[in-house]
Amino acid sequence: MRPLKYIKKIRELRAKLWPEVTFKKELWHRKTNDGFITIPRTMPLIVNIIDDLSKGGPAGMTYAELWCRSYDEMYVSLSKSKELAFCSGFTSQRAERTWAEKIRKLAELGFIKIREGQAGPLSHALILNPYLVIKKMHEAGKAGLSKEKYSALVERAIEIGATDLDDNYLDDDDEEVVSAPPPAANNAVVKPKLAIKPLPLKVAKKKASAA
């Protein structure tokens, strides 16, 4: 969470640098615009590292496109291969074949896992934590992984507070976190109310006279 004082300073600076811009109307904002996904702040560097590892056929944009189609489960359906290929930047007659090669390369490098299904050998994809994948490569001395870029990834991770590259990352948390439903107030069980039917008029009069 950024300090309010810092946010105020940035907004004041922004207003002075771009006085002609109506910020509420002309800027994209996560709280007012829909259609967004959470990504690590290091994503550009991760994509760059993937390109280095897949030289001759850079797969960074293919990876970014997969991520942008994922949700919290990090699962992506690969059934729309033509659309996925186009959005990954492949538009030639060999677009789908080239895209499929990138998907297999990402799986070979360990960034994703793929499974067959109704759409063929490439039907489903699971995106793994890229920090852990890259860290494992670094420890194994993987060819193609730049030492400078790995150091930059470590530095940036520390800067943004990402602990994924720490040695004790998730040591005591092996299970997936699932949000529990909110507890019922005071553990009370609400029983349905019984409808009380009014007495017939004659019966009501008799009871009234008896009283």
How is this fold's topology laid out?
Elements: H1 4-17, H2 23-26, H3 43-53, H4 60-68, E1 75-77, H5 81-87, H6 95-109, E2 112-117, E3 120-127, H7 130-140, H8 147-160, H9 201-210
Antiparallel strand pairs: 1-3, 2-3
Helix pairs in contact: 3-4, 5-6
Describe this structure in words.
The chain is mainly α. It has one domain. 45% of the residues lie in helices and 8% in strands. The chain contains 9 helices and 3 strands; from the N terminus they run H-H-H-H-E-H-H-E-E-H-H-H. It has a 3-stranded antiparallel sheet with strand order 1-3-2, covered by helices on one side. A hairpin with a 2-residue loop joins strand 2 and strand 3. Helix 3 crosses helix 4 and helix 5 packs across helix 6. The longest helix is centred in the middle third of the chain and has 15 residues. The radius of gyration is 29 Å and the shape is globular.
The 3D shape can be described as globular
Over all CA atoms, what is the radius of gyration?
29 Å
Taking the alpha carbons of the first and last residues, their distance comes to: 72 Å
Order of helices and strands: HHHHEHHEEHHH
Number of helices: 9
**Class of secondary structure makeup:** mainly alpha
Our count of domains comes out at 1
The largest β sheet comes out as: 3 strands, antiparallel
What ranges have pLDDT less than 50 throughout 5 or more consecutive residues? none
The amount of helix comes to: 40-55%
Query: Looking across the biggest beta sheet, what order are the strands in?
Result: 1-3-2
The percentage of residues in β strands lies in 5-15%
Tally of DSSP β-strands: 3
Indicate the mean pLDDT.
Answer: 88
